[in-house]
Amino acid sequence: MLTSILSFFTVKRLILVGIISGCYILHTSYPDKQNQPIKKEWIELEKKYAEMLDPITHYKEEDPSLYWFIVSWLNTNYGTPNWQNYYQETWQEERKEKGIDCSGFARVLQDKIYGYNVRGSSQQILDRYCRKVKRKDIQKGDLLFFKAPYSKSHRIVHVGIYLENEFFVHATSKKSATQGFGVKIDHLLAKNWSQELVTIGRIKKAFKKEDD
Fold first, then answer.
1. What is the pTM of this model?
2. How many CB atoms lie within 10 A of CB 76?
3. How far apart are CA 182 and CA 66, in angstroms?
4. For the domain with range 73-207, which CATH number is right: 3.40.50.80, 3.90.1720.10, 3.40.50.300, 3.40.50.1010?
5. 155: Cα separation from own chain's centroid
């Protein structure tokens, strides 16, 4: 029985989903090499934010780790994170309630999905950890660095993570969080994002975690 199920679900990456103790268990190539539980509440979030998730629904098969990571952070609050107990299972739920900011979200995504160890503000992440890349060479996982709206200065105040086709994901603002969009997928041509984009960064391989 199990052999037939495994054969059926053999794709580019093997995904075996079952209902165990109230959770869906996703076996995938997560950087920490651990099986990641897909909670029922994530399924509800997926339904609630289906329209926003539509541009990346194919990630469920092609890049399930990234897809469910994004879903798991939807409907979160915005705020400066406390990194104490970061490696405990309860940390994410505490941050969803108390808030995470743009650089904090970028840090967690780069750690959990790509296995990079970065920290600091948006400007510090760019200065310390990234090499700049041209827009024509942008790849999924690259970091987008933005200035303040209508600012003449190029001081970096915001960071997002590039997905594809001009879409990116980021932790937004307190105002957006009150509307249920503390973490959001946006398009570079929406609002003034493209005009506010200062540069694109790719984290240097030197900052890849040793256990990856």
1. 0.84
2. 23
3. 17
4. 3.90.1720.10
5. 23
